[in-house]
Amino acid sequence: MIKKLKYIFIGLFFLFYNCTGLNYESSLYLNENTQNLSKGQLKRLKDYFNGSFYNYLTEAKGVGSPMYFLINSKGDKSVLIACEDISSSSNCSVGVRLYQTINKYNKKFNDSFKILAKDNYILLGNKKYLIERKKIINLEKNLNLNIQNDNSKNEYFDVIIDKRSDPNDSGYL
After folding, report:
1. CB 117 within 8 A of CB 68
2. What angle is formed at CA 118 by the lines to CA 115 and CA 119, rounded to 5 degrees?
3. CA distance 43 to 83
């Protein structure tokens, strides 16, 4: 009887672990120590950290709290996820929509988008680098970013999270 309970408990643990996506989350981040980045994407990354960026959805200068900066493997396509609340990104919740957004762009471009930045951190090679305002100017010198000329067309995408949105909403952005 105790053996059966033990197996049931182990089975439920693995079921819960796989359903929550905890094992998948680490695969969303860049595991490489270096990331390719075009000059246009470097400028956009700096704008992301400044909290003032061009919003390609509204085709106007956007202001918001940065949440995530996704980049593809070549470094010429990015997705900027920001909270509409300029005071703090903690007033917005991405929830499961982060995974859905990454999946959407992976399928759309048959490429691999990964999280390069989260909030005020750059994530490279399983390391987390806090980006302070004074470090934004020399971002490429302080980190292992392989800056390339803009030979291919840069593509920019935005996802703005409404601070009043339900974090449990599983709808696509």
Report:
1. yes
2. 160
3. 20
Distance CA 37, CA 73 (A): 9
pLDDT digits (tens, 9 = 90+) for 92-117: 777 778 888 899 999 999 998 999 99
CB 42 within 8 A of CB 145: yes
**pLDDT per residue as tens digits for the range 55-93:** 777 677 776 778 899 999 888 999 988 887 766 666 677
Pairing of strands 121-124, 114-118: antiparallel
| Domain residue limits, the chain | 26-161
166 three-class SS = coil
- Residue type for position 115: I
**Do residues 79 and 113 lie in contact, with contact meaning Cβ atoms separated by under 8 Å?**
yes
Q: Which amino acid appears at position 15 of this protein? A: L
